[in-house]
């Protein structure tokens, strides 16, 4: 496999049989970015990287984290995240339960670096 080939489950292989490389996620308009592995939600990955996204319930029901997927794709491990069919068509996602399936760009105007977040 070449370094950017699909590892069979939508993740990229590093070409050496090691764990697949994570996907790169950029947040607009801030330009903040983080890596997200296929086994963690976008919210979990963002927090691990020091990127604060709005959140509350962490299970797809409160919609506090609602944002727009501008590029890329995500998948959900729950049967029906708290989005209407129309919202899904418009590109809305819930980062608390969305898992990257590719490099992605999301729009979340309230995102900030954790060091800039009010305490």
What's the gist of this structure?
The protein is mainly beta. It contains two helices and nine strands.
Rg of Cα set: 14 Å
Low-pLDDT residue intervals, each spanning 5 or more residues: 1-9
CATH fold type = Ubiquitin-like (UB roll)
Average pLDDT over all residues: 87
Helix content: 10-25%
> Tell me, what is the CATH class?
Alpha Beta
Count of domain modules: 1
Our count of helices gives 2
Name the CATH homologous superfamily.
Answer: Beta-grasp domain
Distance between the termini: 46 Å
Description:
With 119 residues, the protein is mainly beta. The chain has a single domain, classed as Beta-grasp domain (Ubiquitin-like (UB roll)). The chain is 10% helix and 27% strand. The chain is built from two helices and nine strands. The strands form three sheets. Strands 2-1-8-4-6 form a five-stranded mixed sheet. The longest helix has 7 residues. The protein is globular and about 35 Å long. The N terminus is likely disordered.
């Amino acid at each position: 496999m070449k370094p950017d080939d699909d590892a069979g489950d939508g993740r990229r292989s590093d070409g050496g049989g090691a764990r697949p490389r994570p996907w790169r996620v950029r947040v607009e308009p801030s330009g903040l970015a983080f890596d997200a592995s296929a086994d963690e939600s976008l919210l979990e990955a963002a927090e691990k990287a020091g990127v604060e996204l709005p959140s509350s319930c962490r299970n797809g029901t409160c919609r506090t984290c609602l944002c727009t997927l501008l590029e890329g794709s995500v998948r959900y491990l729950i049967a029906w995240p708290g989005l209407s069919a129309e919202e899904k068509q418009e590109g809305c996602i819930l980062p608390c339960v969305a898992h990257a399936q590719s490099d992605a760009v999301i729009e979340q105007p309230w995102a900030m670096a954790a060091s800039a977040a009010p305490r």
